[in-house]
C-alpha cells in the first residue's frame, strides 16, 4: 500500500532507497567476518548507532519538517510536507528530506 501522493516513486527517492539499503547492510555483524560481534560500520567508524538519529524514521516515510523556529502570525505554513530520505553522519545529525511541493532535497 502506497500512501504517498504519487502513482510511482520519484527517481531521486528511489535512488536514496537503494543507497540506504546498501548502507544499512553494514549496520549488522556478518557471520564469517573479522568480528562476530561488531558490524563493519562499527569497526570502520568506531561510533555506535543511535536510535534517535539512525532508526527513528525509515526511507520513504511521510514526515512534516518544521520550517521556522519563530512563530509568526501569518499564513505561511509552519511545516513542510516531505518524504524522509536518510540521516547524515555528520556532527549536526541533519536529516535529508524530499520536499514534495518543490521536488528538491532539503536538510
Quick rundown:
By secondary structure, this protein is an alpha+beta fold.
Write the layout of secondary structure elements.
Layout: H1 11-24, H2 40-45, H3 51-55, E1 62-66, E2 79-87, E3 95-99, E4 104-106
Antiparallel strand pairs: 1-2, 2-3, 3-4
Written overview of the protein:
The chain is an alpha+beta fold. The longest helix is centred in the first third of the chain and has 14 residues. The chain is elongated. β3 and β4 form a beta hairpin. Helices cover 23% and strands 21% of the residues. The two termini are 27 Å apart.
Keywords:
single chain, 107 residues, alpha+beta, 4-stranded antiparallel beta sheet, 3 helices, 23% helix, elongated
Order of helices and strands: HHHEEEE
Shape: elongated
Q: Mean of residue pLDDT?
A: 80
Q: Unreliable segments (pLDDT under 50, ≥5 consecutive)? A: none
Radius of gyration: 17 Å
Largest sheet: 4 strands, antiparallel
Helical content stands at 10-25%
Oligomer classification: single chain
- Helix and strand content put the structural class at alpha+beta
β-strand amount? 15-25%
The number of helical runs is 3
Distance between the termini: 27 Å
* Number of beta-strand segments: 4
Strands of the biggest beta sheet: in what spatial order?
A: 1-2-3-4
Amino acid at each position: 500500500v502506497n500512501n504517498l501522493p504519487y502513482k510511482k516513486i520519484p527517481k531521486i527517492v528511489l535512488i536514496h532507497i537503494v543507497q540506504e539499503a546498501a548502507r544499512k547492510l553494514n549496520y549488522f555483524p556478518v557471520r564469517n567476518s573479522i568480528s562476530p560481534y561488531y558490524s563493519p560500520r562499527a569497526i570502520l567508524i568506531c561510533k555506535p548507532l543511535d536510535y534517535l538519529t539512525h532508526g527513528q524514521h525509515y526511507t520513504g516515510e511521510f514526515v512534516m519538517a518544521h520550517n521556522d523556529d519563530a512563530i509568526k502570525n501569518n499564513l505561511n505554513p509552519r511545516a513542510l510536507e516531505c518524504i524522509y530520505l536518510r540521516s547524515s553522519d555528520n556532527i549536526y545529525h541533519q536529516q535529508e528530506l524530499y520536499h514534495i511541493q518543490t521536488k528538491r532535497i532539503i536538510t
